[in-house]
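Case study 2.
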Amino acid sequence: MRTKINTALKEAMKSKDALRLSTLRLINAAIKDREISLRGKGEDETVSEGDILGILGKMVKQRQESARAFEEGGRLELAEKELSEISVIEVFLPKQLDADEASAAIEAAIAEAGAESIRDMGKVMGVLKRKYTGQMDFGAVGPMVKDKLG
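Prediction:
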């Protein structure tokens, strides 16, 4: 994943694509920040693939929120920039699960965790995060899990 991002960064430099270049630099900076925080905790300094997917997912969510706020404030040019950055970041994320796939994944996670009640929601979310990081919005999945367990 890091190699893919760095290759894209070099290509953006060669093609002088300023938006893509700045977004890729932000991605690298976020990954480096994670490495530094891991080093501070005395943990292994390498950032895993799952960590990178989590970082990218968080970056997309932040930009969606910013774009929404800019649109509400009438700053359409800034909202457009945020949406453009999202399209650059999403290139590195796996395909998002649709509603049916997410529902099936939740059912499988409930079975795997042996969940029987709402108290087991943490176990189910743990299974989902381990298997589907970057492929689903866990903020939206939480209520779905709650419905199935409740």
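The chain has two domains: 2-90, 99-149.
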